[in-house]
Amino acid sequence: MRAADVTVALILLALGGLVVLDSVRLGLRWDSDGPQAGYFPFYIGAIICVASLVTLARALFAKAAGGNIFVEWGQLKLVLSVLVPAGLFVLGVQLIGIYVAATAYIVVFMIWLGKYGWLKSLVLGLTVSVVMFLMFEVWFKVPLYKGAFNPLSFTGY
C-alpha cells in the first residue's frame, strides 16, 4: 500500500506541477478584462500539488501496515472493465470522431455492463450522439473532432 500511495502521489505531484508551470506560461494574473487563461488552472494545479504532498508525507511517515495488498484480482478486473473500454474510446475518438465513438461506447457499456437489450442501447446511444451533434455543430456552431476517417462527412459538417 505504501508503494502505491507514494507512486500515485508522485505522479499527481508531477501532473499538478505541469499544470502550474503551464499556467505561468499562459498568464495567471487578473487583467482589466478578467482572468488570464492560466488563472484558474494555476490554482487547481496548486491544490493538486498540495494534496499530493500531503498524501506523500502520510505515506512516508505513517506506521507500516502489515501485509495489506494494494488490489485483489477481482477488484482489478472491475477497474480494467472500465479502463480498457475508456482507452479504446479515446482511440476511437482519434480515428472515427467523438460522435461515432460515443455512440459505440454508450451501446457497448449498456449491453455489456448494464445488461440492457441491444435495441434500447442503440436507441439511447444514437439519441445522445445526435443531441450532442445538434447542440454543438448546429446550434452553438462549435465543431467537435470528427476523427481521422470522419465517417460523418456525408452530413456536410
User: What global shape is seen?
Assistant: flat
Low-confidence stretches: none
Task: Let me know the average pLDDT.
Answer: 93
- Based on secondary structure, the structural category is mainly alpha
Count of domains: 2
Strand order of the largest sheet: 1-2
Q: Approximately what portion of the residues adopt beta-strand conformation? A: under 5%
Q: N-to-C terminal Cα separation, in Å?
A: 50 Å
Helix content: 55-70%
The SSE string, one letter per element, is HEEHHHH
Q: Helix tally?
A: 5
Oligomer kind: single chain
Count of individual beta strands: 2
Most strands sheet: 2 strands, antiparallel
Rg over CA atoms, rounded to whole Å, is 21 Å
Structural account:
The protein has helices at 2-26, 39-61, 73-96, 98-112, 118-139, and strands at residues 30-31, 34-35. It folds into two domains: 2-61; 73-155, no CATH class. The chain is flat and about 60 Å long. Helix 1 packs antiparallel against helix 2, helix 3 packs antiparallel against helix 4 (98-112) and helix 4 runs antiparallel to helix 5. Helix content is 69%, strand content 3%. The longest helix is centred in the N-terminal third of the chain and has 25 residues, at 2-26.
Layout of SSEs?
Blueprint lengths: L1 H25 L3 E2 L2 E2 L3 H23 L11 H24 L1 H15 L5 H22 L18
Antiparallel strand pairs: 1-2
Helix pairs in contact: 1-2, 3-4, 4-5
TL;DR?
The protein contains 5 helices and 2 strands, in the order αββαααα. The chain is 69% helix and 3% strand.
Labels describing this entry:
single chain, mainly alpha, two-stranded antiparallel sheet, 5 helices, 2 strands
